[in-house]
Amino acid sequence: MKVCSIGLRGMEGYRVQVEVKELPGMPSVAIVGLADTSVKEARERVIAALHAFGCDVMNQKLVIHLSPPERKKQSPMFDLAMAIGILKVKGKLEQPIPSHIAFLGSLSLDGTIQPVDGMLPAILAAKKLGFQQVYAPYDPAFPFQYLQHIDCVFVQTLDQVVQYLQGQQVLFSMSQPLSDVHPPQKTHRDFEHIIGHEYAKYALEVAAAGEHNVLMIGPPGCGKSLLAETFPTILPCLSHEAQLEVLSLYQLAGEVKNDSSPPFRHPHHSASSVALIGGGTQPKPGEVSLAHRGVLFLDEMAEFTKKTLDMLRQPLETGKVTISRVSSTVTYPAHFILIGAMNPCPCGYFGSKKRYCICSPKQIQAYRQRISGPIYDRIDILLSLEAVDLTEKQKQTECSETIRSRVEAARFKQYERYGEEITNGRVPIDVLLAKSPLTKRHQQLLQHWAATYDWSNRVQTKIIRLARTIADLAKTDDITDEALWKAIAFRRIKEGRQERNMKRGF
């Protein structure tokens, strides 16, 4: 007897064929097919669940084979398929089981079917693999309104599965929506509550519109963390496809997310490289993947170990992270906006107008070199912040909702230009230049500044992407002189003033 299920390697699903056969010999149940401990323990769970159902399996030898045998099986998701295969072999289930049906779920000892980590990506993978129907346990965290195109049969017990296969009505079905993804949670943070920092707010608006990375450098208490934590309020809500990707990653990591807002991850600077990138014996998504389609905020960025920060090179460049282990190699998506914040020096007051810096030039240079050149190259906007004088009269600023509307309009313009849901910060550079070519004058200007500041080709590409986003916010079809100048200013603001001060002996 053959019954189908779904295995996962990262977020990639593959067909698992559960083969059950009775053989002469001592009564036993053996599971083969490169199963790990969680799958081998299914033997006792399945035997107990079938005993509760009224089927005794300990009167003959049974062999359960999980195919393909060369792939390691690492989840208790195959319990239900094993039980159905044994019931069919034992004659307790007479109806034929088509090959286009997949069974997912873990069994408890009384026959209850329970969800496990990775149920949502497994259901989505079943659709891609051509399965027409999926039996799975009910999970209130599922975004049912996004799964209408998948024929899911939600069951609670093994008895319900057998009844449904025999033609009786099921308790749950996709025709009865049982849950909904909540709207974005209201937050008390808003850009209109932040005093000053008008230039930084505009820079973050550009970063949100084009998905550009930002590094903020300033003395303690100047507002770096406040700006970063308010940044998600100007990001558009996730689309249906993006919401499914994010929920799948959170399920694989065993975490909960039930709203449509972009994720915001804020790991502590003591986090290990495995926590940030992902890994483990059975590779799980790390912070960079949990920030997929959202924001990864690294406060006190220079306090992270250099090795950990350098591991961000691949996800910042490719939008994915590959984790290699002896048993398998998995790839997780990691398209995120990096927001970094750090002090200008160890004491924090280099360049301050009100406090004296006690750090030597050598200490300042060593502190900044904790962030390597390749990481600096992958950052689009470099901001130097100063403390705001609260005694000065401040003008009224825009609220986050107004800024978000402009960000959404700019993103819609980019989606129309490229014909897909991709922004200026992610689109391949050849496509960007084909849609928005630079004039000869713009090329000469960019080459001049690149030679002056010794910018790499990657930095020049970042400036072109920034200029295109600035033009989109200004609602112009082509990259203008003003847009290019603003993009150059975003990159040289830090290097222009503070680096010169260091050369003078600060």
Write a compact overview of the structure shown.
With 506 residues, the protein is of the alpha/beta class. It is built from 19 helices and 19 strands.
Account of the protein in words:
The radius of gyration is 28 Å and the shape is elongated. Helix 6 (198-210) runs parallel beside helix 15 (400-418). It has 506 residues and is an alpha/beta fold. It has a 5-stranded parallel beta sheet with strand order 12-15-18-11-19. The protein has a 4-stranded mixed beta sheet with strand order 1-2-4-3. A 4-stranded mixed beta sheet has the order 5-8-9-10. The chain is built from 19 helices and 19 strands. The protein starts with a strand and ends with a helix. One of its GO terms (molecular function) is DNA binding. Belongs to the Mg-chelatase subunits D/I family. ComM subfamily.
Keywords:
19 helices, four-stranded mixed β-sheet, 38% helix, disordered C terminus, Ribosomal Protein S5, domain 2, 19 strands, single chain, elongated, alpha/beta, five-stranded parallel β-sheet, 506 residues, Rossmann fold, 17% strand
Summarize the SSE layout with pairings:
Blueprint: E1 2-9, E2 12-23, E3 28-32, H1 37-40, H2 42-53, E4 61-67, H3 79-89, E5 101-103, E6 106-107, E7 113-114, H4 119-128, E8 133-137, E9 152-155, H5 158-165, E10 172-173, H6 198-210, E11 214-217, H7 224-230, H8 240-253, E12 264-265, H9 273-277, E13 278-279, E14 284-285, H10 287-290, E15 295-298, H11 306-310, H12 313-318, E16 320-324, E17 329-333, E18 337-342, H13 361-368, H14 373-377, E19 381-384, H15 400-418, H16 429-435, H17 440-453, H18 457-473, H19 481-503
